[in-house]
Amino acid sequence: MAEEERKALRPVNSNSAMYTLGIDIGSTTSKCAVIKDGTELVATSLQTGGLGTGGPEEALAALWRSSGLTAADIARTEVTGYGRKNYEGADGEISELTAHALGGRFVFPDLRTVIDIGGQDAKVIALSPSGKMVNFVMNDKCAAGTGRFLDVMASILRLDVDDLDTEAAKSTAPASISSTCTVFAESEVISQLANGVKRPDLVAGICRSVASRVAALARRAGVTEQVCLSGGVARNDAVRQALSEELNVPVSVDPLAQYFGAIGAALWAHKEVSK
Length: 275
What we know:
Layout: E1 4-8, E2 19-25, E3 29-36, E4 40-48, H1 55-67, E5 74-80, E6 92-93, H2 96-107, E7 113-117, E8 122-127, E9 133-139, H3 147-156, H4 164-168, H5 182-194, H6 199-221, E10 227-230, H7 237-247, E11 251-252, H8 260-273
Parallel strand pairs: 2-5, 5-6, 7-10, 10-11
Antiparallel strand pairs: 1-4, 2-3, 3-4, 7-8, 8-9
């Protein structure tokens, strides 16, 4: 059964307010966010299951339950993410790049660089001082440096992917993962296990491997502080720390990191309604 997470941030009173909804349909999760009057985040929901599943509908159902809102209260809905082209329940769609830039700036007003590590891709978005996107670089051709890479490695090591950072913290000598392909890296990890390398050291090496690949993307896009990490991998503090070391800048993370796309889509919806 899919795992459901939902959160009502504030009690909602739908009288005399404009609510807009953003839906971010990723490869492995679906996220929703409601913005009130273009300035206040009032509710979020997250459901395991993204493109091609019932995840979006289940995330919406969770949102209505937790917020007290209904579809009739929503002035406009915008969809973003991996599955946006195939979703028919929105008034419009917005690119992932724009959504994550808007959502990131909503949480971090001085944000200049967004590093988003999702289930199937990684992207780095460079922003101007005013928040306009000035450059971006994406990796959507290879699973290395994405959440999928961490999922595969966690499975090999018989760990829950959410426990990787805790395991990495026990490391005393992080292993070197030299393969740039998930398939070859899988074989490399299995070989190192057979040779007696400790699991925490392997996990630390895996997290550093992801950070190294993403840092290479970031350098191509251009890195300017303030830098933040978004997407599901933002929950992995070992990756965040390694990324900060690779780039030699602080990398900020917020509990709303997984919702940046949905928040950005909701903000865009408000902008469209307000035209």
